[in-house]
Amino acid sequence: MRSVTGRRFDWPDLLFGLFLIAVAAGTFAATWRLAGGTAADMGPGYMPRAIALALLGFGLFFTGRGLVRSYAGIERVQLRPILGVGASVGVFALLIESAGLAAAAFAAIVIAAVASRESRFFEVILFGLFVTAAAVLLFVKALALPVAIWPW
């Protein structure tokens, strides 16, 4: 479909923006009877409406951009990143209780590196060690969460 200026709409942005506006409108309609309150004394409707307001803002942005910009096309779906990140999350979920946080985090980072063709072995290992140490320090030491670091 052509716009008034003869350019095509950016349909993905336009439809996404309209979807966000519809979700925001539904949220406002569902929470209209709830007390809103103030930031200092929040009622049950305060946060849903605040989030709906943010969604409305993003919806208006994407709708406007979809009307102004011409369609640029959508890239072909790449399976490598989807499978790499999905496998990484799955391995982390499977290992966290049996192997501990350190092994699960390190394995997840190494497997996630498969998602990019630009990953270099040495960099991935160093990054994995750094992030694993940071995760242990943050979750086990700083936040004192009851998570096993090692399987033993």
UniProtKB/TrEMBL annotation:
Q: Which InterPro entries match?
A: DUF1468 (IPR009936)
> Sorted alphabetically, which keywords does the UniProt record give?
Membrane, Transmembrane, Transmembrane helix
Domain DUF1468 residue range list: 15-146
Domain of life of the organism encoding this protein: Bacteria
According to its UniProt record, what is one Pfam family this protein matches? TctB
- Transmembrane among keywords: yes
Spell out where the chain crosses the membrane: 45-68, 89-115, 121-150
What is the protein named?
Tripartite tricarboxylate transporter TctB
